[in-house]
Amino acid sequence: MPCITFIAADGAETVVDAGTGDSLMQVARAHNVDGILAECGGEMMCSTCHVYVEGDWLDRTGTADEDERDMLDFAPCEVTDASRLSCQMKITDDMDGLVVRLPERQV
Amino acid sequence: MAMAPVNDSVTVHRLIDDPYPVYAQMRAHTPVVQVPSVKRTMLTKAEDCRMVKDNPALFSSNDPTTPMEKAFEAHTLMRKDGEEHLRERNAMMPTFSPRNLKTIWAPMYERYAAEYLDRLPRGEVVDLFPTLAGPLAARILAECMGIPDASDEQMQFWSQALIDGAGNFGWFDEPFERVARANKEMNRVIEGNVERAKAAPDQSALSVMLNAEDPIPWSQIVANIKIAIGGGINEPRDALLTIIYGLLTNPDQLEEIKATGNWSAAFEEGVRWVAPIQASSRLVLEDTEIRGCDIPKGTVVMTIQASANHDEDLYEDGHLYNALRKSQPHQSFGSGPHHCMGTHMARMTVGRLLLPILFERFPNMRLENPEDVVWRGFGFRGPINMPVRLN
Questions:
Q1: Is position A37 within any domain?
Q2: Which residue among A38, A41, A74 sits closest to B337, beta carbon to beta carbon?
Q3: How many other C-beta atoms can be found within 10 angstroms of the C-beta atom of residue B384?
Q4: B95-107: per-residue pLDDT in tens?
Q5: Is A17 on the interface with B (CB under 8 A)?
Q6: What are the distances in angstroms from CA B85 to CA B168, B338, B391?
Q7: Cβ density class A58-67: b for 16+ within 10 Å, e for less
Q8: Does some domain include residue A17?
Q9: Is the Cβ of A37 closer than 8 Å to some Cβ of chain B?
Q10: Where in the sequence is the domain holding B81, given as residue range(s)?
Q11: Under an 8 A CB cutoff, do B98 and A76 touch?
Q12: Rounded to whole angstroms, how far apart are CA atoms B244 and B267?
């Protein structure tokens, strides 16, 4: 099971085991990670599951496509090249060790 | 396991007039409870409401016992699941894209907001419900939907008729007769805009749906526009009035929000405090259990987001408006596939645009008698008047 680390805006870390095939948003919700609201439940309609992918991990997670970037426009915090909607990130075996940071707020 | 307890004492009138103490009691003693007066099993805890909304495979939106189909003269996407729901929803989505919101609807809304604010008299008591909150919500929605020739009065009449018809659980004649009249008018106005929308396509919902590569059936195009009319006026209207009340009755919070410019916090807290849509129904497709209560297949459960938003597990003093509270998620826009389509529109227009403009223009706005404000509604809730002195 890939091990994923969520780092909250205040620096608090949550480390969880993720099921491959789930979305990163589902993993966060299943483990009650504060800071991922996921209001729409993964339909890419709400932009409340914004994360920043740490360092080189973008090579493996991929970057946001055009539709995702459009939706990220609704995120209240700064959107960077490392920004992703976690509902659109599917967990794969090679993501073991993935680290993502959470924005200060989602609405 | 046992069935959920029954609460025979709660009447619909009580829920319309003053539901929050009822929900507080339910959360404390019977969080899952059958309420015969509304023929539903109410869920009043945040966790349960969210679970139901996020699990459409078990909790279907297709509740056949509501008067909605008769009111809308259509089986609408609100009462559909899965691919069928998604196809109809996606047909209208482009209108509300982030780009369109930023480049078309936000600037248009600002122009209308300035125009409607210009009409308000200074120095006297004015009711913001009929003079600002209702008409402004109606105007931007008429534009968004692609029926700009519909007047503010028509839009508001149609919206209320649809709401009253869809909520006519007593199956009385008058609401159905009124909504039948409204449907006739809406059909005429929507049809009257078809040629224009085809000849000069724009980003309005009518145009986007008509000119799509693989359009949904005409009946569903019309139904989608009616859904937006039924939900797109009262919600921003009631949210705005609720927030104004919250801020004017908590001047220290208002000053802080003015200083920080964090109007979005004032907005989110307003829709948390009194959710414009207080309750939603879902049909249970398989025998299940919630919080230790048996919920048989065929039960209609009602998520009470009004109650979820006051849940003591999540909020301290949830019954109070506090724009400065630590940000907490609320369920006012729902969750799952039926997550409110107008969420971003509402957050942008009411939260980011109108509130700062309003309080900048009338920095000394006063609500002289807060006790004069009347709140009403079970399914939908908000103030039905907001008498303020503008200065």
A1: yes
A2: A41
A3: 15
A4: 999 889 999 999 9
A5: no
A6: 24, 9, 47
A7: eeebeebeee
A8: yes
A9: yes
A10: 2-390
A11: no
A12: 9
The number of folded domains in chain B is 1
Q: Which residues of chain A are within 8 Å of residue B97 when distances are taken between CB atoms?
A: 70
Which of B54, B98, B347 comes nearest A71 by C-beta?
B98
Strand partners, A6: A14, A100
The one-letter amino acid code at A1 reads M
CATH code, domain with A11: 3.10.20.30
Mutate to test the interface with A, among B339, B341, B347 (most CBs of A within 10 A): B339
> What's the CATH code of the domain at B145?
1.10.630.10
pLDDT in tens, B268-324: 999 999 999 999 999 999 999 999 999 999 999 999 999 999 999 999 999 999 999
Kindly list the residues from chain A whose CB atom is less than 8 angstroms away from the CB atom of residue B54.
41
What does the pLDDT read at residue A7?
97
Chain B: residue whose CA lies nearest to A69: B98
Q: CA triplet B353, B105, A64: central angle to 5 degrees?
A: 95
Distance CA B391, CA B70 (A): 46
Q: Where are the beta strands (DSSP E) in chain A?
A: 3-7, 13-17, 50-53, 83-85, 99-101
- CA distance linking residue B361 with residue A57, whole number of Å: 48
For A69, the domain range is 3-101
ipTM of the complex: 0.83
* DSSP type of residue B376: E
The structural domain count of chain A equals 1
| Residues in Cβ contact with B347 at an 8 Å cutoff, skipping those fewer than 6 apart | A74, A107, B264, B267
pTM for this structure? 0.94
In a domain, A106, yes or no: no
B90 to chain A: closest CA residue: A45
Residue of chain B minimizing CA distance to A104: B327
Do the domain assignments include residue A50? yes
Report CB contact under 8 Å: A38, B327.
no
